[in-house]
# Entry
Amino acid sequence: MPTEALRKKAQQLDSEDPLADFRNRFEWPQPKGVPSIYFTGNSLGLMPKAVRKAIQEELDLWASFGVEGHFEGPHPWYSYHQDLKPALAELCGAMEEEVTPMGSLTQNLHFLLANFYRPQGKRTKILCEGSSFPSDFYMLDSQVRWHNRKAEHEIVELHPRKGETFLRTQDILSQIEALGEELALVLMGGVNYLTGQRFQMQEITEAGHKVGAIVGFDLAHAMGNVPLMLHNWNVDFAAWCTYKYLNSGPGATAGLFVHKKHHGNTPYRLEGWWSNKANNRFKMERKIDPETSADGWQLSNAPVMNMAAQRVSLALFQEAGLDNLHKKREALNLFLFENLEALKALFPNEGLGSLTPDDLNHRGCQTSLVCGENGRALFEFLESNHVVADWRWPNVIRVAPVPLYNSFSDIWSFFDITRRFFVSS
# Structure
Protein backbone atom coordinates (compact mmCIF):
# COMPACT_ATOMS: atom_id res chain seq x y z
CA MET A 1 0.00 0.00 0.00
CA PRO A 2 1.46 3.42 -0.93
CA THR A 3 2.71 5.73 1.83
CA GLU A 4 -0.10 8.26 1.48
CA ALA A 5 -2.74 5.55 1.60
CA LEU A 6 -1.27 4.19 4.86
CA ARG A 7 -1.27 7.68 6.37
CA LYS A 8 -4.94 8.17 5.49
CA LYS A 9 -5.82 4.73 6.83
CA ALA A 10 -4.12 5.59 10.15
CA GLN A 11 -6.18 8.77 10.41
CA GLN A 12 -9.35 6.85 9.63
CA LEU A 13 -8.62 4.18 12.22
CA ASP A 14 -7.88 6.85 14.83
CA SER A 15 -11.15 8.61 14.10
CA GLU A 16 -13.03 5.32 14.67
CA ASP A 17 -11.12 4.34 17.83
CA PRO A 18 -13.38 4.40 20.93
CA LEU A 19 -10.27 4.54 23.16
CA ALA A 20 -8.57 7.41 21.30
CA ASP A 21 -9.10 9.98 24.07
CA PHE A 22 -7.25 7.89 26.66
CA ARG A 23 -3.90 9.01 25.24
CA ASN A 24 -4.72 12.49 26.56
CA ARG A 25 -4.84 11.05 30.09
CA PHE A 26 -1.09 10.39 30.02
CA GLU A 27 2.04 12.53 30.17
CA TRP A 28 4.08 12.26 26.98
CA PRO A 29 7.89 12.63 27.19
CA GLN A 30 9.15 15.61 25.21
CA PRO A 31 12.92 15.37 24.74
CA LYS A 32 14.20 18.73 23.46
CA GLY A 33 10.64 20.04 23.60
CA VAL A 34 9.31 17.72 20.90
CA PRO A 35 6.59 15.17 21.80
CA SER A 36 7.89 11.65 21.40
CA ILE A 37 6.45 8.66 19.59
CA TYR A 38 6.54 6.33 22.59
CA PHE A 39 6.78 2.59 21.95
CA THR A 40 8.37 1.32 25.18
CA GLY A 41 5.38 0.51 27.34
CA ASN A 42 6.93 -2.97 27.43
CA SER A 43 9.76 -1.45 29.49
CA LEU A 44 8.22 1.52 31.33
CA GLY A 45 4.66 2.65 30.82
CA LEU A 46 3.73 6.30 30.51
CA MET A 47 2.67 8.27 33.56
CA PRO A 48 -1.09 8.84 33.98
CA LYS A 49 -1.72 12.55 34.57
CA ALA A 50 -3.87 11.82 37.62
CA VAL A 51 -0.92 10.28 39.47
CA ARG A 52 0.32 13.66 40.72
CA LYS A 53 -3.00 14.38 42.41
CA ALA A 54 -3.27 10.87 43.87
CA ILE A 55 0.19 11.02 45.47
CA GLN A 56 -0.39 14.58 46.70
CA GLU A 57 -3.61 13.43 48.39
CA GLU A 58 -1.68 10.80 50.34
CA LEU A 59 0.99 13.35 51.28
CA ASP A 60 -1.74 15.70 52.50
CA LEU A 61 -3.28 12.90 54.57
CA TRP A 62 0.11 12.13 56.09
CA ALA A 63 0.54 15.81 56.94
CA SER A 64 -2.98 16.11 58.40
CA PHE A 65 -3.44 12.78 60.18
CA GLY A 66 0.03 11.41 60.87
CA VAL A 67 -0.19 7.82 62.06
CA GLU A 68 -4.00 7.96 62.04
CA GLY A 69 -3.82 7.93 58.24
CA HIS A 70 -3.64 4.15 58.57
CA PHE A 71 -7.33 4.19 59.45
CA GLU A 72 -8.59 7.60 58.26
CA GLY A 73 -9.24 9.16 54.87
CA PRO A 74 -10.79 7.85 51.64
CA HIS A 75 -8.17 5.08 51.24
CA PRO A 76 -6.90 4.05 54.70
CA TRP A 77 -3.32 2.86 54.50
CA TYR A 78 -3.85 -0.25 56.63
CA SER A 79 -6.12 -1.79 54.01
CA TYR A 80 -4.76 0.14 51.00
CA HIS A 81 -3.73 -2.97 49.09
CA GLN A 82 -7.33 -4.17 49.15
CA ASP A 83 -8.33 -1.31 46.82
CA LEU A 84 -6.13 -2.75 44.08
CA LYS A 85 -7.25 -6.37 44.27
CA PRO A 86 -10.49 -6.21 42.21
CA ALA A 87 -8.75 -4.76 39.15
CA LEU A 88 -5.72 -7.05 39.51
CA ALA A 89 -7.99 -10.09 39.78
CA GLU A 90 -9.84 -9.03 36.62
CA LEU A 91 -6.60 -8.47 34.73
CA CYS A 92 -5.25 -11.92 35.45
CA GLY A 93 -8.52 -13.86 35.51
CA ALA A 94 -8.45 -14.73 39.19
CA MET A 95 -10.48 -14.56 42.37
CA GLU A 96 -9.71 -11.54 44.54
CA GLU A 97 -8.43 -13.81 47.32
CA GLU A 98 -5.87 -15.27 44.87
CA VAL A 99 -4.02 -12.00 44.18
CA THR A 100 -2.18 -9.42 46.21
CA PRO A 101 0.01 -6.40 45.36
CA MET A 102 3.38 -6.62 47.09
CA GLY A 103 7.14 -6.55 46.72
CA SER A 104 9.05 -6.60 43.46
CA LEU A 105 8.92 -9.19 40.70
CA THR A 106 12.06 -11.15 41.57
CA GLN A 107 11.40 -10.92 45.31
CA ASN A 108 7.95 -12.36 44.76
CA LEU A 109 9.28 -15.19 42.61
CA HIS A 110 11.75 -16.05 45.37
CA PHE A 111 8.96 -16.06 47.97
CA LEU A 112 6.84 -18.29 45.74
CA LEU A 113 9.61 -20.73 44.91
CA ALA A 114 10.48 -21.06 48.60
CA ASN A 115 7.06 -22.64 48.84
CA PHE A 116 6.65 -24.33 45.46
CA TYR A 117 10.13 -25.58 44.52
CA ARG A 118 10.81 -28.48 46.87
CA PRO A 119 13.12 -30.94 45.07
CA GLN A 120 12.73 -34.46 46.40
CA GLY A 121 13.91 -37.83 45.14
CA LYS A 122 13.91 -37.93 41.34
CA ARG A 123 11.64 -34.87 41.04
CA THR A 124 14.22 -32.06 41.05
CA LYS A 125 14.33 -30.40 37.63
CA ILE A 126 13.11 -26.94 36.57
CA LEU A 127 12.03 -26.23 32.98
CA CYS A 128 12.36 -22.63 31.73
CA GLU A 129 12.97 -20.55 28.61
CA GLY A 130 16.53 -20.36 27.38
CA SER A 131 15.96 -16.69 26.51
CA SER A 132 14.23 -15.65 29.73
CA PHE A 133 15.14 -12.28 31.23
CA PRO A 134 18.47 -12.75 33.07
CA SER A 135 17.01 -11.97 36.50
CA ASP A 136 14.76 -15.03 36.22
CA PHE A 137 17.74 -17.26 35.54
CA TYR A 138 19.70 -15.68 38.42
CA MET A 139 16.72 -16.34 40.69
CA LEU A 140 16.37 -19.96 39.55
CA ASP A 141 20.10 -20.57 39.80
CA SER A 142 20.19 -19.30 43.38
CA GLN A 143 17.11 -21.34 44.31
CA VAL A 144 18.79 -24.48 43.02
CA ARG A 145 21.99 -23.66 44.91
CA TRP A 146 19.91 -23.00 48.05
CA HIS A 147 18.98 -26.69 47.88
CA ASN A 148 22.66 -27.66 47.50
CA ARG A 149 22.22 -28.57 43.86
CA LYS A 150 23.80 -27.42 40.62
CA ALA A 151 22.06 -25.41 37.91
CA GLU A 152 23.65 -27.39 35.09
CA HIS A 153 22.05 -30.55 36.48
CA GLU A 154 18.65 -29.21 37.46
CA ILE A 155 17.73 -26.34 35.10
CA VAL A 156 16.55 -27.40 31.64
CA GLU A 157 16.38 -24.55 29.13
CA LEU A 158 14.07 -24.46 26.12
CA HIS A 159 15.43 -23.10 22.83
CA PRO A 160 13.86 -22.65 19.38
CA ARG A 161 14.71 -25.12 16.66
CA LYS A 162 17.73 -24.29 14.55
CA GLY A 163 16.92 -21.48 12.13
CA GLU A 164 13.73 -20.48 14.01
CA THR A 165 13.21 -17.48 16.28
CA PHE A 166 10.56 -18.60 18.78
CA LEU A 167 9.51 -21.77 20.55
CA ARG A 168 6.96 -24.16 19.15
CA THR A 169 4.26 -25.03 21.66
CA GLN A 170 4.53 -28.71 20.78
CA ASP A 171 8.26 -28.66 21.58
CA ILE A 172 7.51 -27.23 25.04
CA LEU A 173 4.87 -29.89 25.69
CA SER A 174 7.15 -32.65 24.41
CA GLN A 175 9.97 -31.57 26.74
CA ILE A 176 7.58 -31.58 29.71
CA GLU A 177 6.49 -35.12 28.81
CA ALA A 178 10.08 -36.25 28.33
CA LEU A 179 11.17 -34.98 31.76
CA GLY A 180 8.15 -36.67 33.31
CA GLU A 181 8.62 -37.64 36.95
CA GLU A 182 11.94 -35.80 37.10
CA LEU A 183 10.18 -32.46 36.60
CA ALA A 184 9.50 -30.50 39.79
CA LEU A 185 8.67 -27.09 38.34
CA VAL A 186 7.83 -25.34 35.09
CA LEU A 187 8.51 -21.60 35.25
CA MET A 188 8.07 -19.58 32.08
CA GLY A 189 7.17 -16.08 31.05
CA GLY A 190 3.64 -15.38 29.89
CA VAL A 191 5.23 -13.33 27.09
CA ASN A 192 8.92 -13.57 26.26
CA TYR A 193 10.73 -10.27 26.85
CA LEU A 194 13.00 -10.59 23.78
CA THR A 195 10.83 -12.10 21.06
CA GLY A 196 7.41 -10.97 22.26
CA GLN A 197 6.11 -14.54 21.93
CA ARG A 198 2.99 -15.21 24.00
CA PHE A 199 3.06 -18.71 25.42
CA GLN A 200 0.04 -21.00 25.52
CA MET A 201 -0.24 -21.00 29.29
CA GLN A 202 -3.26 -23.25 29.59
CA GLU A 203 -1.70 -26.03 27.51
CA ILE A 204 1.62 -25.75 29.34
CA THR A 205 -0.12 -25.89 32.72
CA GLU A 206 -2.14 -28.95 31.76
CA ALA A 207 0.98 -30.73 30.48
CA GLY A 208 2.96 -29.89 33.62
CA HIS A 209 0.22 -31.11 35.92
CA LYS A 210 -0.15 -34.31 33.89
CA VAL A 211 3.40 -35.32 34.86
CA GLY A 212 2.98 -34.14 38.45
CA ALA A 213 4.88 -30.84 38.28
CA ILE A 214 4.05 -27.40 39.69
CA VAL A 215 3.53 -24.73 37.00
CA GLY A 216 4.10 -20.99 37.48
CA PHE A 217 4.53 -17.95 35.24
CA ASP A 218 6.46 -14.69 35.23
CA LEU A 219 3.86 -12.27 33.87
CA ALA A 220 6.09 -9.19 33.64
CA HIS A 221 5.32 -8.81 29.92
CA ALA A 222 1.84 -10.35 30.02
CA MET A 223 -0.03 -8.54 32.80
CA GLY A 224 -2.04 -5.68 31.31
CA ASN A 225 -1.04 -6.87 27.84
CA VAL A 226 -2.81 -10.14 26.94
CA PRO A 227 -5.93 -11.96 28.18
CA LEU A 228 -5.28 -14.12 31.24
CA MET A 229 -7.46 -16.72 33.00
CA LEU A 230 -5.10 -17.98 35.69
CA HIS A 231 -7.76 -19.47 37.94
CA ASN A 232 -9.57 -21.39 35.19
CA TRP A 233 -6.28 -22.48 33.64
CA ASN A 234 -5.40 -23.97 37.05
CA VAL A 235 -2.02 -22.19 37.14
CA ASP A 236 -0.34 -22.81 40.50
CA PHE A 237 1.27 -19.40 40.94
CA ALA A 238 2.36 -16.29 39.06
CA ALA A 239 4.10 -12.98 39.68
CA TRP A 240 4.34 -9.71 37.81
CA CYS A 241 5.75 -6.21 37.87
CA THR A 242 3.56 -3.14 37.31
CA TYR A 243 5.85 -0.53 35.77
CA LYS A 244 5.46 -1.83 32.21
CA TYR A 245 1.94 -2.20 30.81
CA LEU A 246 0.37 -1.29 34.18
CA ASN A 247 1.93 2.21 34.13
CA SER A 248 2.64 2.35 37.87
CA GLY A 249 6.04 4.06 37.76
CA PRO A 250 9.68 2.98 38.11
CA GLY A 251 10.20 0.42 40.84
CA ALA A 252 6.43 0.18 41.41
CA THR A 253 4.88 -2.38 43.73
CA ALA A 254 4.58 -5.74 42.00
CA GLY A 255 2.07 -8.51 42.65
CA LEU A 256 1.46 -12.23 42.80
CA PHE A 257 -1.18 -14.90 42.26
CA VAL A 258 -1.59 -18.13 44.21
CA HIS A 259 -4.35 -20.49 43.14
CA LYS A 260 -7.02 -21.07 45.75
CA LYS A 261 -6.27 -24.80 45.83
CA HIS A 262 -2.99 -23.97 47.60
CA HIS A 263 -4.48 -21.68 50.25
CA GLY A 264 -3.96 -23.08 53.70
CA ASN A 265 -1.35 -25.55 52.45
CA THR A 266 1.81 -23.48 52.76
CA PRO A 267 4.32 -25.23 55.06
CA TYR A 268 7.36 -23.57 53.47
CA ARG A 269 5.99 -20.06 52.96
CA LEU A 270 8.28 -17.21 54.05
CA GLU A 271 6.27 -15.00 56.38
CA GLY A 272 6.23 -11.66 58.15
CA TRP A 273 3.91 -9.51 60.28
CA TRP A 274 1.47 -8.99 57.39
CA SER A 275 1.16 -12.75 56.88
CA ASN A 276 -1.12 -12.72 59.92
CA LYS A 277 -4.87 -12.42 59.55
CA ALA A 278 -5.70 -8.71 59.55
CA ASN A 279 -7.88 -8.82 62.66
CA ASN A 280 -5.13 -10.43 64.74
CA ARG A 281 -1.99 -8.53 63.65
CA PHE A 282 -2.05 -6.09 66.52
CA LYS A 283 -2.27 -8.79 69.17
CA MET A 284 1.50 -9.01 68.72
CA GLU A 285 1.56 -12.68 69.56
CA ARG A 286 4.66 -14.80 69.06
CA LYS A 287 2.72 -17.44 67.13
CA ILE A 288 1.46 -16.34 63.74
CA ASP A 289 -2.22 -16.61 62.89
CA PRO A 290 -1.68 -17.32 59.17
CA GLU A 291 -3.71 -15.63 56.48
CA THR A 292 -4.51 -18.44 54.06
CA SER A 293 -5.26 -16.36 50.95
CA ALA A 294 -2.64 -14.81 48.65
CA ASP A 295 -2.46 -11.95 51.18
CA GLY A 296 -0.58 -14.34 53.44
CA TRP A 297 2.46 -14.00 51.20
CA GLN A 298 2.74 -10.35 52.24
CA LEU A 299 5.46 -9.49 54.72
CA SER A 300 4.68 -5.90 55.70
CA ASN A 301 2.32 -2.99 55.20
CA ALA A 302 1.61 -1.40 51.83
CA PRO A 303 4.03 1.17 50.28
CA VAL A 304 1.18 3.65 49.86
CA MET A 305 2.91 6.39 47.85
CA ASN A 306 3.97 3.74 45.38
CA MET A 307 0.57 2.08 45.21
CA ALA A 308 -1.22 5.42 44.65
CA ALA A 309 0.12 5.48 41.08
CA GLN A 310 -0.98 1.88 40.53
CA ARG A 311 -4.49 2.65 41.79
CA VAL A 312 -4.81 5.43 39.19
CA SER A 313 -3.60 3.24 36.31
CA LEU A 314 -5.81 0.31 37.27
CA ALA A 315 -8.82 2.64 37.30
CA LEU A 316 -8.01 3.55 33.68
CA PHE A 317 -7.97 -0.14 32.71
CA GLN A 318 -11.37 -0.64 34.29
CA GLU A 319 -12.77 2.46 32.61
CA ALA A 320 -11.46 1.45 29.19
CA GLY A 321 -12.59 -2.18 29.55
CA LEU A 322 -10.37 -5.20 28.96
CA ASP A 323 -12.29 -6.42 25.92
CA ASN A 324 -11.93 -3.00 24.26
CA LEU A 325 -8.21 -2.92 25.04
CA HIS A 326 -7.60 -6.39 23.63
CA LYS A 327 -9.54 -5.56 20.46
CA LYS A 328 -7.49 -2.40 19.94
CA ARG A 329 -4.24 -4.26 20.65
CA GLU A 330 -5.08 -6.68 17.85
CA ALA A 331 -6.03 -3.83 15.52
CA LEU A 332 -2.74 -2.04 16.26
CA ASN A 333 -0.89 -5.28 15.54
CA LEU A 334 -2.63 -5.76 12.20
CA PHE A 335 -1.87 -2.20 11.14
CA LEU A 336 1.76 -2.62 12.21
CA PHE A 337 1.97 -5.81 10.11
CA GLU A 338 0.58 -3.87 7.15
CA ASN A 339 3.20 -1.15 7.56
CA LEU A 340 6.02 -3.66 7.90
CA GLU A 341 4.94 -5.50 4.78
CA ALA A 342 4.94 -2.19 2.92
CA LEU A 343 8.49 -1.50 4.12
CA LYS A 344 9.66 -4.96 3.06
CA ALA A 345 8.16 -4.41 -0.40
CA LEU A 346 9.82 -1.00 -0.74
CA PHE A 347 13.21 -2.16 0.57
CA PRO A 348 13.53 -5.90 -0.04
CA ASN A 349 17.32 -5.94 0.43
CA GLU A 350 17.45 -4.43 3.93
CA GLY A 351 16.79 -7.69 5.79
CA LEU A 352 13.84 -6.24 7.67
CA GLY A 353 12.00 -8.90 9.65
CA SER A 354 10.59 -9.86 13.03
CA LEU A 355 11.34 -12.37 15.80
CA THR A 356 7.71 -12.25 16.94
CA PRO A 357 4.99 -14.69 15.83
CA ASP A 358 2.47 -13.22 13.39
CA ASP A 359 -0.39 -15.23 14.93
CA LEU A 360 -2.33 -12.83 17.18
CA ASN A 361 -2.93 -15.65 19.67
CA HIS A 362 0.82 -16.06 20.11
CA ARG A 363 1.82 -12.45 20.70
CA GLY A 364 0.94 -9.32 22.67
CA CYS A 365 1.71 -5.65 22.05
CA GLN A 366 5.40 -6.10 21.32
CA THR A 367 7.05 -6.65 17.96
CA SER A 368 10.78 -7.42 17.96
CA LEU A 369 12.26 -6.15 14.70
CA VAL A 370 15.52 -7.13 13.08
CA CYS A 371 17.21 -5.21 10.30
CA GLY A 372 20.29 -6.84 8.80
CA GLU A 373 23.50 -4.89 9.25
CA ASN A 374 21.72 -1.54 9.60
CA GLY A 375 19.79 -2.28 12.78
CA ARG A 376 21.83 -0.09 15.13
CA ALA A 377 21.97 2.77 12.63
CA LEU A 378 18.19 2.56 12.18
CA PHE A 379 17.66 2.61 15.94
CA GLU A 380 19.81 5.73 16.30
CA PHE A 381 17.94 7.40 13.42
CA LEU A 382 14.65 6.62 15.14
CA GLU A 383 16.00 8.13 18.36
CA SER A 384 17.09 11.28 16.55
CA ASN A 385 13.53 11.60 15.24
CA HIS A 386 11.98 11.31 18.72
CA VAL A 387 10.89 7.68 18.47
CA VAL A 388 11.34 6.00 21.86
CA ALA A 389 11.93 2.32 21.16
CA ASP A 390 14.23 -0.25 22.77
CA TRP A 391 17.49 -1.79 21.55
CA ARG A 392 18.65 -5.31 22.42
CA TRP A 393 21.99 -6.57 21.17
CA PRO A 394 22.94 -7.77 18.71
CA ASN A 395 20.23 -6.54 16.30
CA VAL A 396 16.77 -6.31 17.89
CA ILE A 397 14.54 -3.21 18.06
CA ARG A 398 11.57 -3.77 20.35
CA VAL A 399 8.46 -1.66 19.69
CA ALA A 400 5.23 -2.03 21.65
CA PRO A 401 2.17 0.00 20.57
CA VAL A 402 0.02 0.05 23.73
CA PRO A 403 -3.77 0.31 23.32
CA LEU A 404 -4.30 2.63 26.30
CA TYR A 405 -2.26 5.45 24.81
CA ASN A 406 -0.76 4.68 21.40
CA SER A 407 -2.52 5.59 18.16
CA PHE A 408 -2.54 4.19 14.65
CA SER A 409 -0.88 7.43 13.55
CA ASP A 410 2.02 6.64 15.90
CA ILE A 411 2.57 3.46 13.90
CA TRP A 412 2.38 5.29 10.60
CA SER A 413 4.90 7.87 11.81
CA PHE A 414 7.24 5.04 12.80
CA PHE A 415 6.80 3.56 9.31
CA ASP A 416 7.48 6.91 7.62
CA ILE A 417 10.62 7.65 9.67
CA THR A 418 11.92 4.15 8.94
CA ARG A 419 11.18 4.66 5.24
CA ARG A 420 13.16 7.91 5.24
CA PHE A 421 16.10 6.14 6.88
CA PHE A 422 16.25 3.51 4.15
CA VAL A 423 15.89 6.13 1.42
CA SER A 424 18.84 8.10 2.82
CA SER A 425 21.10 5.15 3.65
